[in-house]
Amino acid sequence: MRIEKEQIEQHNNRLAAKHKRAFDYISEDISEVESIINKLQQFQIAIPSWALGTGGTRFGRFSGKGEPGNLEQKIEDVGLLHALNRSSGAISLHIPWDIPQNAEQIKSLASSYGLQFDAVNSNTFQDQEGQEHSYKFGSLHHVDPKVRKQAVQHNIDVINHGIALGSKALTVWLADGSSFPGQLNFREAFQNTLESLKEIYAHLPEDWKLFVEYKAFEPHFYSMTIGDWGQSLLLATKLGSKAYTLVDLGHHLPNANIEQIVSLLLMEGKLGGFHFNDSKYADDDLTAGSIKPYQLFLIFNELVEGMDASGLDHATGLGWMIDASHNLKDPLVDLLQSVDAIMIAYAQALLVDRVALKEAQRDNDIVKAQQILQDAFRTDLRAIVAEARLRDGAALDPIGLYNELSVREELIKERGDNTVATGL
Ligand SMILES: [Mn+2]
């Protein structure tokens, strides 16, 4: 299914008067409104290929209907999202769940929807059919060099798939860890991981980045070999200038100050990418901004401040991706909500009066500092985010139009109601 330009225009025309009232009202008090809209138009958030099907929990999975059964249909789904919001112009593939059989065909299909290929993701957290060595006790950190070699080769294969598609980054997340004291020698596990990553790094093209993702716990509960940003930064620093830390919002212990982590990684020039989701406890995979929207804003506040301080382009300086796979909502609606929450938080961070904040910090005026941040957070910028969409030819109300066009029903007609997204 493709959404036609006329369908979006008709929808926007119906909402035009109401939108104009809201936009004029909020614009009146914001002098930099044009610059904010311009930055919002540039900003794109990659959609991972595994987020298009209904996720499960360890207790089971309740499949949705009309889910994409192959890579072409996943690209079609991201194309639908991008048509509705013009902010989801990239797709992040997971190998081996989504191996492109014909890279040129896949590339041209993606570009027909205006999509590019973001970071490619390797998978050494589960065994694949026909695989010689098992990852039950880890991959890049494994005590057996034969297992490490197999995992390194897989990552090299993933880089090669990425090159064929025009990707520019490899994301490595490892499930390696231990669940019982004594199971691992921590130093050996770290050294083995480093040596394996060095072999992978050696195969990176010149203009590529390697993102080292960390996670505090799960699937292991005593130690994770890359468990926090310190361990990731240590690896990225030892690897070299193409290696960076990747921050996934759900991969921290409860109440971790993620905005501070982001700030220091940016200071060190070692923040490479970002995985958005929200959580009450840990890796809950909930819609971005659904539980802690103020935290999302505070993170964006540090991102904008830190990127500006180091001269990074907001849209291209870091890799932006959603990493969530929800088990209750229609995955496409969930992604539209996530992208919208991210754009609102970004817009609010752009609104922060940085000169006044600096002054308040210098004067130890903490009341003022809090007011400045909360003024931005409490300003309703939805009409500005909608205006950016309107100017890009997207829908004023993406979820509204998704429902008006009965997109899911259409997909069920096309694909059947007994579908299971591949890879999950
Ligand atoms: Mn992630």
From TrEMBL:
One annotated GO molecular function: isomerase activity
Kindly give the InterPro entries that the UniProt entry links to this protein: L-rhamnose_isomerase, Xyl_isomerase-like_sf, Xyl_isomerase-like_TIM-brl
Instruction: Recite the UniProt keywords alphabetically.
Output: Isomerase, Manganese, Metal-binding
Presence of the UniProt keyword Cytoplasm in the record = no
Q: Where is the Xylose isomerase-like TIM barrel domain?
A: 100-285
Matching Pfam families: AP_endonuc_2
Return the protein name: Sugar isomerase
Tell me what organism the protein belongs to. Answer: Sphingobacterium zhuxiongii
Q: What is this organism's lineage?
A: Bacteria, Pseudomonadati, Bacteroidota, Sphingobacteriia, Sphingobacteriales
